[in-house]
Specification:
With about 325 residues, the chain is an alpha/beta fold. It has two domains: about 200 residues, Periplasmic binding protein-like II (D-Maltodextrin-Binding Protein, domain 2), CATH 3.40.190; about 100 residues, Periplasmic binding protein-like II (D-Maltodextrin-Binding Protein, domain 2, 3-Layer(aba) Sandwich), CATH 3.40.190.10. The protein contains twelve helices and 14 strands. The strands form three sheets. Strands 3-5-4-6-13-7-14 form a seven-stranded mixed β-sheet, with helices on both faces. A hairpin with a 6-residue loop joins strand 1 and strand 2. The protein is globular, with a radius of gyration of 20 Å.
């Protein structure tokens, strides 16, 4: 997706020299990176890195050609704040973002709370900054308006779509909510993974599942992020809040100048005034970030991860 902004902006091409990495393609990144770095000159590397494009791994956010893509907006704003070119690599899911960072294939990735905790726990990825959570519920499960399901307990025996196995709002938090209602995955309901929130909504719309669990924030945004009109859907249940909303993860080899530049630029990119344009990233806009949080900042996720069958210590 190459984009140009016309109305309301000066005419400029957003630098989207976009690469696409499949899940299988991630496996070879580390070997390629090591091979390419063997002859590098350490004395000149730091200076060269500070002038190189900033690289970001992202998952797909929106394919609606009539709406401004939040990834394009992120690139535009980050280029404006840093004065540097920004390149995007598309990957299929959150875990592929983490692997791209771990392998030094990209500089940064923007993640929600749980995949951030999983990544930081490996000891091979740094949290550049993180946004603390609030006291609002994170997730809900969406059903069509004519569904007999009224409460989370009514989803027993049903098929439920989740966004991604590493998604905070689209997996971990709703699984915890269903656990609190007495329902266990694989025993009381069937889970399918739709490859993203859009896929979950499509599966619900097409009658392939009985419910789609997602972020409350998306249900409040309307089209194109949420495809259902008022009267077509209902929310079933509310998850607990999260202690950490999300983070920007960085490769540990990121040069000091770029690291400092990003720590200064990203809070400005995610300012309240950019909330609407950032769309799917807008949940972080206006929040006060913690710069360079320590790994224990994410420790609150351990219990909820265990409900979903994930032990943080097993991911090192």
């Amino acid at each position: 997706m190459f984009s140009e902004f016309f109305e309301g902006h000066s005419l400029r091409k957003v630098t989207m020299r976009r690469n696409v990495i499949t899940s299988l393609g991630i496996v070879g990144i580390a070997a390629l990176t090591l091979t390419g770095c063997q002859a590098a000159d350490p004395a000149g590397a730091e200076s060269a890195a500070a002038d190189a494009p900033i690289t970001i791994a992202t998952i797909p956010m929106s394919d609606d050609p009539t709406a401004e893509n939040p990834v394009d907006v992120l690139v535009e704003l980050l280029e404006a704040e840093t004065g540097r070119e920004v390149e995007v690599t598309d990957v299929p899911d959150y875990l592929s973002v983490v692997e791209a960072i771990r392998a030094d294939h990209v500089d940064i990735g923007i993640m929600s709370g749980f995949p951030s905790a999983l990544a930081v726990n490996t000891g091979e990825v740094d949290a550049l900054l993180a946004w603390p959570g609030d006291d609002k519920p994170v997730s809900t499960c969406v059903v069509l308006n004519d569904s007999p399901v009224k409460t989370p307990a009514d989803l027993k025996g049903k098929t439920i779509a989740f966004a991604d196995q590493a998604s905070s709002s689209g997996y971990f938090m709703p699984v915890s909510m269903l656990h609190e209602a007495g329902l266990e995955q694989g025993t009381d309901y069937e889970a399918i993974f739709a490859g993203g929130h859009e896929g979950s909504f499509a599966a619900l719309e097409q009658g392939q599942v009985d419910a789609a669990c997602t972020a409350f924030m998306l249900t409040e945004m309307g089209a194109p992020m949420f495809p259902f009109e008022d009267g077509e859907w209902r929310a079933v249940g509310e998850s607990a809040p999260m202690a950490v909303m999300g983070s920007v993860l960085a490769r540990q080899s990121l040069d000091a100048e770029t690291r400092t530049q990003l720590e200064e630029a990203l809070p400005k990119v995610f300012s309240a005034e950019n909330k609407e344009r950032l769309a799917g990233y807008g949940g972080f806009a206006g929040l006060e970030p913690v710069i360079a949080p320590k790994p224990d900042f994410f420790s609150s996720f351990a219990d909820i991860a265990a409900i979903a069958g994930v032990e943080l210590e097993d991911l090192k």
